[in-house]
Specification:
The protein has 75 residues and is mostly helical. Helices cover 33% and strands 0% of the residues. This is Macro domain-containing protein.
Length: 75
């Protein structure tokens, strides 16, 4: 166990609507390969709070994320 690393990583299982109040540097967005909304409350809340720029980036620039891969966007 790495105490220094553990103090920096938090697994949060809270209400989707309260995610905008988190003081964090990054959020892991569990999604499907095409970033489709409507599949889970977390995705819908993230798109709502992040605004249209996130959707534009996902749909127009990244478009696809193979299973097991990651894509990084601006906050």
């Amino acid at each position: 166990m790495n105490e220094q690393l553990n103090s920096k990583i938090i697994l949060w299982n809270g209400c989707s609507s309260s995610m905008s109040r988190l003081n964090v540097d990054a959020i892991v967005h569990p999604t499907n390969e095409h970033f489709e909304r409507g599949l889970n409350p977390f995705t819908n809340a993230l798109y709502k709070h992040a605004g249209p720029e996130l959707r534009k980036t996902l749909y127009n620039k990244l478009k696809y994320c193979p299973i097991g891969s990651i894509k990084i966007t601006k906050g």
